[in-house]
């Protein structure tokens, strides 16, 4: 089956509908599948439930779907960088399901592994545990968390091949690999497209069996950052005058 598509719109053709659940990879703005997010905006699909570690920032990443009010509910861990998100939530226009970050990651990973639920100590005795079953193991109370599985996962990878095998880079590896396993269909955008076999088997983070479609990012694709912090090198130290941290 041909997996490589010419652009994001083509890669998502026939997959989007109102009311669906979408997992969107990335950590902050690292590894965010922005081309695919833009194609979702252009599609006009609405009433979406989006599972993502965070909600991007205003006008960037998932922020553009908040601008168009296409998202009905967010299942996230951290949303503090997005003023639009806060405004819609406080106005009762957006539903939010907060998760401790580790719990969110495990809900996704377990979904990909076919595990329907699990118990964790995180959140016991807090609002996170309200209305959820609890159990005692070895004298300790645990709260049950249901796993997450989406209709569609969109991810960003550093490298991919024509068979859909993916390799991520650094912080972009935080949520993308587990999301790629936890959806009915996974679509990936990749910075570098290579022939099968060019990614060493030991370097494949997501096997191609999980990826149904992918596209190559254009040469001028811009990877955004949330903030840049620099420091001066000590006197006499080797290297450039300023470095990004």
UniProtKB/TrEMBL annotation:
Keywords: Transferase. GO terms for molecular function: CoA-transferase activity. Pfam families: CoA_trans. The keyword Transferase applies. InterPro entries: 3-oxoacid_CoA-transf_A, CoA_trans_fam_I, NagB/RpiA_transferase-like. NCBIfam families: pcaI_scoA_fam. This is Succinyl-CoA--3-ketoacid-CoA transferase. It comes from Falsiroseomonas bella.
């Amino acid at each position: 089956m041909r997996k490589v598509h010419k652009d994001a719109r083509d890669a998502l053709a026939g997959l989007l509908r109102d009311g669906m659940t979408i997992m969107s990879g990335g950590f902050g703005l690292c590894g965010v599948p922005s081309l695919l997010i833009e194609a979702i905006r252009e599609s006009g699909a609405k009433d979406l439930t989006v599972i993502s570690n965070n909600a991007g920032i205003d006008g960037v990443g998932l922020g553009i779907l908040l601008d168009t009010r296409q998202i009905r509910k967010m299942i996230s861990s951290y949303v503090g960088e997005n003023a639009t998100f806060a405004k819609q939530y406080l106005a009762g226009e957006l539903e939010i399901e907060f998760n401790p970050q580790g719990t969110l990651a495990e809900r996704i990973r377990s979904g990909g592994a076919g595990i329907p639920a699990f118990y964790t100590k995180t959140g016991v005795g807090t609002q996170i545990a309200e209305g959820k079953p609890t159990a005692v193991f070895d004298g300790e109370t645990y709260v049950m968390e249901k796993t997450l599985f989406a209709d569609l996962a969109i991810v960003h990878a550093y490298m991919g091949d024509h068979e859909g095998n993916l390799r991520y880079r650094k912080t972009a590896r935080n949520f993308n690999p587990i999301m790629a396993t936890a959806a009915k269909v996974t679509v990936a955008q990749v910075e570098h497209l290579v022939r099968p076999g060019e990614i060493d088997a030991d370097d494949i983070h997501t096997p191609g069996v999980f990826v149904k479609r992918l596209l190559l990012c254009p040469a001028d694709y811009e990877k955004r950052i949330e903030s840049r912090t620099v420091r001066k090198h000590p006197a006499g130290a080797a290297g450039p005058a300023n470095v990004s941290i």
